[in-house]
Amino acid sequence: MKTLTLHKYTAGDFTLVQNRFLDEYMISANGEFVKIYLYLLRCSSAEREISIASIADALNHTEGDVKRALSYWNRKKLLQLSFNDDGILTDIVLTSDIDPAKEQTERVKSYASLLNERENTGKTVQMPERISVSAARKKELSEQEDIQQLIYIAQQYLGKILSSTEVTHILYFYDELHFSPDLIEYLVEYCVSKGKKSIHYISTVAMEWSKRGISTVEEAKKDSNLFQKDYYAIMNALGIKDHAPTPIECKWMSKWLDQMAFSLEIVLEACQRTIMRTHKPSFEYADSILKSWKKKNVKTLSDIEKLDKEASSRQAENTASKTGAQNRFNNFPQRKYDFNQLEKKLLDY
Fold first, then answer.
1. How far apart are CA 278 and CA 285, in angstroms?
2. Measured between alpha carbons, how far is 298 from 292 in angstroms, rounded to an integer?
3. Per-residue pLDDT averaged across 252-276, rounded?
4. Cα(329)–Cα(310) distance, rounded to whole angstroms?
5. Residues in Cβ contact with 64 at an 8 Å cutoff, skipping those fewer than 6 apart
6. What is the 3-state secondary structure (H, E, C) of 242-303?
7. Phi, psi of 93 (to 5 degrees)
8. pLDDT value at 231 more than 50
């Protein structure tokens, strides 16, 4: 195959985009999120005044789309968002340097794949070897007063003396994930409040928080509330009320809300249609509906209503066509026979 030569020209008016963003962040991000990030870069270089509404109008998105994109890039630490006391967004800061977090991301992906394998096969999967702390470092940390207090509090929450493995995990959260003692304490408290005392479950939550860039108790509480509100609403729409979301179920819902960038109301509509058509909860069926809507560029409930009307119109046309074909058959001129006369001819023969 003949190679192409790409020529570059110099222009006076341009917006700089870091190569690391193009090589790593752009590839895994939703395309609409990338558009919004690039638009923010452009506006920042020109010092334009913007708002959620103006961004949505410029890119032909909904304000909900813009808010989800901002939340996504905030979790990736490419943006810093500031809110007033009423929870209204007041400032957006584009970080000057993209955090080199590739190694941590790969660590999360590796661990998530092991958890999914255990969920699918029922096999017991060992913790990754990377979740470890050297003996020398463990001794050093164990001599710190705040760590000693943290271990004691964790034991109170879990109702037992921690094993060596459990202590290693907690020290890992502190030393490798850079969680503060307060955040680790809240992590254990949060998991116990869910009825989960397994160190595997606690580690799963810790990895997810690390991936989301959570570094304070306040951020963890906010993220947990959003997680519970959206995920549990989806579970409820599917008629699932007997258990908390599993890792696989969370993966489905994260795909719909984050990767496919659907609003919660769109996802709930897909779930309701799933129950109406299958009479049982099915993440796969709901996913097929959302994939179809994604291909048709559905963004609002009115878009879905429009598709429904088009489908009904096509169905009516097909029905009319079939009815017309039957009528044409019935309207064919029928021959009339005098059966008495025919019978006489046969007898005379």
1. 8
2. 9
3. 90
4. 29
5. 263
6. CCCCCHHHHHHHHHHHHHCCCCHHHHHHHHHHHHHHHCCCCHHHHHHHHHHHHHCCCCCHHH
7. -115, 120
8. yes
At residue 80, what are phi and psi to the nearest 5 degrees?
-125, 120
Q: Tell me the C-alpha distance between 270 and 303, whole Å.
A: 13
Find where tokens 């968002």 sit.
81
Query: What single string gives the DSSP state of each residue in 166-210?
Result: HHHHHHHHHHTS---HHHHHHHHHHHHHTT---HHHHHHHHHHHH
Q: Which of 6-15, 215-224, 276-285, 317-326 has the highest mean pLDDT?
A: 276-285
Can you read off the two tokens belonging to residue 192? 């116990």
Q: Model pTM?
A: 0.38
As a whole number of angstroms, the distance between CA 142 and CA 175 comes to 12
Reduce the DSSP state of residue 92 to 3 states and report it: strand
82, β-bridge pairs: 91
Mean pLDDT rounded to a whole number for the chain:
78
Cβ within 8 Å of residue 190, ≥6 positions away: 205, 220, 224
- Cα–Cα–Cα angle for 311, 61, 89, nearest 5°? 140
pLDDT value at 184 more than 90: yes
Paired tokens of 300: 């609002």
Give the DSSP H/E element, type plus range, for residue 236.
helix 217-237
Dist CA 110 CA 121 (whole Å): 17
**What's the confidence (pLDDT) of residue 224?**
67
Q: What is the dihedral of CA 113, 114, 118, 124, to 10 degrees?
A: 180
Q: Which DSSP category does 23 fall into?
A: I
Q: Which residue has the higher pLDDT, 162 or 116?
A: 162
Residue among 247, 238, 244 at smallest CA distance from 203: 247
The stretch 88-109 carries a mean pLDDT of 57
**Structure confidence by residue, pLDDT tens digits, 117-130:** 444 444 333 344 45
**Side-chain-facing half-sphere of 179: CA atoms under 13 Å:** 31
> What is the pLDDT confidence band of residue 225, given thresholds at 50, 70 and 90?
low
- Please tell me the distance from the alpha carbon of residue 264 to that of residue 268, in angstroms, as a whole number: 6
